[in-house]
Amino acid sequence: MFWSPTIERLTVNELERIQEKKLKNLVRNAYEYSPFYKKKFRELGIHPTDIQSLRDLVKLPFTKKQDLRDNYPFGMFAVPLSQIVRFHASSGTTGKPTLVGYTEDDIKVWVESLCRGLVSCGVNNEDIMQIAYGYGLFTGGLGFHYAAEKIGATALPVSAGNTERQINLMRDLGVTVIACTPSYMLYMAEFAEKMGTSLKETKLRMGIFGAEPWSEETRKRIEDKTGIIAYDVYGTSELSGPLFTECIEKNGLHIWADHFLIEVIDPKTGEQVGEGEKGELVVTTLSKEAMPLIRWRTGDITILENEKCNCGRTHPRIMRILGRSDDMLIVRGVNVFPSQIEHVLMQIPEVGDHYMIILDREENLDVMTVQVELSDKVSIDKPADILNLTKKVEERLRVVLGISAKVEIVNPGTLQRFEGKAKRVIDKRKI
Ligand code: DLL
Q1: Which residues of 183-198 are buried (b: 16+ CB within 10 A; e: fewer)?
Q2: What's the whole-model pTM score?
Q3: I need a labelling partner for 341 at 20 to 30 A (CA). Which of 19, 187, 202, 395 fits?
Q4: Is the CB of 232 under 6 A from ligand 1?
Q5: Is 389 in the pocket of ligand 1 (CB under 6 A)?
Q6: 210 lines ligand 1 (CB under 6 A)
């Protein structure tokens, strides 16, 4: 089944012709209307007429997360605010979020992309889709919501959390498709067992899982425990939100080439790697109006596959995300940079210079513990004072990160010291 049968099966040549036309247009628009790109192109001596074909893409500079931070909130936008119909945001390194704006057409392209993906997994208008990604500034909930409705499926906008209610609704309403993080699915499966039931006894037949790294082993576990088919979905807020999914072949995620131009590069040299080689995914948005991105460094490591898929789609695929090229952690679906944690800790005079971040899974849910030494400059030893300090650090971290962390205050000099590069993150999670 196809959502846009003609477009999804265009020949590579036809797709390239669309991409070339859109790329030229994008560069012209960015140069004219985006203050950020105008300045950057001028600094580098690039003029839109330098871009005549897809081969010229490499002449263009990369765009990085830091660019979004430096131009917060509206400096990346290429349309006036009156044309923006929605904002989404994800957490940033120093408390400032990464803001994304959408025009009406940007939302349409996002929805179209995800509809193609969902239909490629077999979602149809008979399905009831439980959307257990967070609704709000996070793109997961609303992204799936709009696509489910567009397909004519029934959206159940339950958002994340309140697991007992999730399971009751799933059973009572005969939910057939669920969309959530893979770790939350595992948690739900276990919770159902505690409630004396099993998700195998529901009508659930499929799950679309993403927003965090996961593995083939986790897919197998989810499928074994729940009896459903598990598909991968990828996207980032900067590119819109959830966008690309596997099809029923489960052999890579289709990237919709009429809207997104992809490259895979060596993160160190910036050079494109050969097909089949591992590298960082770089995406140029060909249709986005509000916040066009040229050669956006996703930070995600993958492998590109250009061969036509057995499902009949001609658009390129990326293989399951294999890791990150930077230190970004994903904790309960939220992007967390260790530097954000350091920033919070170092603003609190009662804590010392040394800390450790420990990530683990309890009942399939991520738990983050931050161990930090007490400063040797202060004399706090009463348990009540330590408790107050613990609460204060926890609260500050919660405000900045948007998720909670367990804080443990330890005595000065007790945490590990490093001679070379500090390794402050211990990730015990098995994905
Ligand atoms: O996580 C968008 C999304 C929502 C995708 C729902 C899928 C489902 P951000 O919060 O901006 O956006 O986080 C994007 O999450 O750069 C990857 O590192 C990671 N990520 C997303 N999907 C996958 C996946 C949403 N399927 C960051 N596998 C990305 C591995 C993923 N990592």
Answers
A1: bbbbbbbbbbeeeeee
A2: 0.90
A3: 187
A4: yes
A5: no
A6: yes
The SS3 call for residue 100 is: strand
Do residue 309 and residue 338 come from a single domain?
Answer: no
Model confidence pLDDT, tens digit, residues 227-253: 999 999 999 999 999 999 999 999 999
Nearest CA owner, ligand 1 atom 21: 211
Same domain flag for 359 and 313:
no
Atom of ligand 1 nearest to the CA of 253: 26
CATH code at position 10: 3.40.50.12780
Chain segment 138-183, per-residue pLDDT in tens: 999 999 999 999 999 999 999 999 999 999 999 999 999 999 999 8
The protein residue whose alpha carbon is closest to atom 30 in ligand 1 is 213
Query: Which of 300, 325, 350 delimits the end of a domain?
Result: 325
* Cβ of 212 less than 6 Å from ligand 1: yes
Residue finishing a domain among 325, 352, 373: 325
Give every CB contact of residue 66 below 8 A, 6+ residues apart in sequence.
none
Token pair recorded at residue 135: 């609704």
Q: How far are the Cα atoms of 209, 286, 315, 426 from residue 257, in angstroms, in the given order?
A: 22, 9, 6, 38
- Answer yes or no: is the C-beta of 233 below 6 A from any ligand 1 atom: yes
Same domain membership, residue 49 and residue 168? yes
